[in-house]
């Protein structure tokens, strides 16, 4: 493990051994979602910059701790933590099952907010308000009411809370013939739409770079989706896209690819924390991994997923990672990785790797 960075630097200082944590009191291993140490019983608080602490000694618990077991700290008594601040609409809690759905969604959202924070991506607008905003909504049962569709619009991410139910999510996955559908994947996909807008606003150079890689986003989005659902993806889509849905529109190609960049970075960091080393040299920690060229990261990720796919098969489970990283997909991932690094560091525009292929 490399020594921790001194000061914040261009990326926030890591909060300690990545993806693995120890109780600040008895030093037994604890997990990211723990509200208490199962060994010594102390109540835990997590701070995105400092890691875990004993709630009796430092900080204030998030106002949602009692309702949804949020274990993050807030800046003052009765306030919401960094993650919960970003949820502006919660489900109808008069429906008994909705408290569990809300808790499951927030449990998945916290690691995403932490990842965005550590990557230095903006989490507040110019007025100091949290963005992206999450609205968690459920169907009312009224056949005349509009359906709740998961999606993004102008910084607001709407999530149908039915996605928190494993059986319902699996039904939709099978119905749509998707190889993979998770809450984590949904959230990573939807925040990508937000960051396309934020990171290209007033930056025509970034926008033109993305258009050169992903295509012209000015084509009619509604018409493109209609055509995709009516006709499906082209038969050779896997040669240039991470998923069939990515072929629908450049915004969807960007969002699908962004989600897989996050899968790759988080997966590699977690593997490192548990002692699963890539055959080639690889820096440790998210803040260092994101500065590696994507072809290098992709090679390590492919080697890891081949092994994990085999383990899943040996246990009778479905494929762990049922995707192919074709060279044009890796080039798109490199464009996103470069965009994230540039947005954090304030450097001049970083060109995509030289093996980027034209559309």
From TrEMBL:
Residues 21-94 form the Zinc-ribbon domain. Pfam families: Peptidase_Mx (PF15887), Zn_ribbon_DZR_6 (PF10005). InterPro entries: UCP012641, Zinc-ribbon_6_bact. This is Zinc-ribbon domain-containing protein. The lineage of its organism: Bacteria, Pseudomonadati, Pseudomonadota, Alphaproteobacteria, Rhodobacterales.
């Amino acid at each position: 493990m490399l020594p921790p960075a001194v000061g914040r630097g261009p990326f926030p200082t890591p909060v300690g051994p990545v993806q693995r944590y120890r109780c600040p009191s008895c030093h037994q291993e604890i997990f990211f979602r723990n509200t208490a140490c199962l060994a010594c019983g102390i109540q835990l608080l997590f701070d995105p910059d400092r890691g875990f602490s004993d709630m009796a000694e430092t900080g204030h618990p998030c106002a949602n701790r009692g309702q949804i077991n949020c274990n993050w700290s807030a800046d003052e008594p009765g306030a919401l933590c960094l993650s919960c601040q970003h949820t502006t609409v919660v489900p109808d809690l008069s429906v008994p099952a909705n408290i569990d759905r809300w808790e499951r969604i927030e449990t998945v959202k916290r690691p995403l907010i932490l990842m965005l924070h550590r990557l230095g991506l903006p989490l507040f607008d110019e007025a100091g308000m949290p963005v992206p905003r999450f609205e968690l909504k459920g169907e009312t049962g009224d056949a005349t009411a509009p359906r709740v569709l998961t999606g993004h619009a102008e910084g607001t991410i709407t999530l149908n809370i039915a996605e928190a139910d494993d059986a319902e999510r699996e039904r939709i996955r099978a119905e749509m013939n998707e190889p993979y559908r998770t809450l984590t994947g949904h959230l990573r996909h939807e925040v990508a739409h937000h960051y396309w807008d934020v990171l290209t606003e007033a930056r025509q150079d970034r926008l033109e770079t993305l258009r050169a890689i992903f295509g012209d986003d000015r084509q009619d989005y509604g018409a493109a989706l209609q055509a995709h659902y009516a006709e499906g993806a082209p038969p050779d889509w896997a040669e240039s896209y991470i998923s069939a849905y990515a072929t629908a529109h450049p915004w969807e190609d960007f969002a699908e690819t962004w989600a897989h960049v996050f899968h790759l970075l988080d997966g590699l960091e977690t593997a490192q924390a548990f002692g699963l080393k890539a055959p080639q040299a690889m820096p440790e920690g998210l803040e260092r991994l994101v500065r590696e060229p994507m072809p290098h990261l992709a090679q390590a990720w492919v080697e890891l997923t081949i092994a994990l796919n085999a383990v899943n098969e040996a246990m009778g489970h479905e494929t762990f990672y049922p995707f192919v990283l074709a060279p044009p997909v890796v080039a798109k991932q490199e464009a996103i990785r470069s965009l994230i690094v540039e947005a954090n560091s304030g450097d001049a525009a970083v060109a995509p790797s030289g093996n980027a292929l034209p559309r």
